[in-house]
């Protein structure tokens, strides 16, 4: 098993993430029985597979790029602004949002996918990204400000 995250996650956070995942995956599974085509893949499934593929690869590749950078002792205390992170400061969150939305789209339920996309985007833009920005501003100072100026997009390249 590959481990990218090298920080501990608290038990309450594990429980929160687990419950959220159980609910969203259960809704997607239930809606696939209700809305999914019975005679093969439809347009929503192909769009969902595309979103899932682009999203999961974006999240995985960006995290691996950052991990490789952080593992080099020469880069200790430096902001990683290369690879996919040169396109959006929190591109890993954007990738996560896309693959989770794509997963639900494969169920054939566009309204649930739109709801989940909105929920993730809202959570990242109102909670996670401001929290991470505050943390990084304190940790990296002027280097973080330069990164913000150099990379104007927050979540999705050329969009937001």
TrEMBL record:
GO terms for cellular component: membrane. It comes from the Eukaryota. The keyword Membrane applies. InterPro entries: UstE-like (IPR010721). The chain crosses the membrane at residues 12-35, 41-61. Keywords: Membrane, Transmembrane, Transmembrane helix. This is Steroid 5-alpha reductase C-terminal domain-containing protein.
């Amino acid at each position: 098993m590959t481990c990218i995250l090298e920080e501990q996650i608290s038990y309450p956070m594990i429980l929160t993430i687990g419950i959220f995942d159980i609910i969203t995956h259960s809704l997607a599974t239930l809606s696939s029985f209700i809305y999914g085509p019975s005679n093969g893949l439809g347009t929503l499934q192909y769009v969902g597979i595309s979103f899932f593929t682009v999203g999961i690869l974006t999240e995985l590749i960006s995290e691996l790029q950052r991990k490789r950078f952080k593992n080099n002792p020469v880069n200790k205390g430096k902001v990683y602004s290369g690879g996919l992170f040169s396109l959006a400061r929190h591109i890993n969150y954007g990738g996560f949002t896309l693959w989770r939305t794509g997963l639900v789209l494969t169920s054939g339920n566009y309204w649930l996918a739109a709801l989940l996309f909105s929920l993730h985007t809202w959570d990242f833009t109102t909670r996670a990204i401001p929290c991470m920005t505050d943390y990084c501003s304190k940790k990296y100072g002027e280097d973080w400000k330069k990164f913000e100026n150099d990379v104007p997009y927050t979540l999705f390249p050329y969009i937001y």
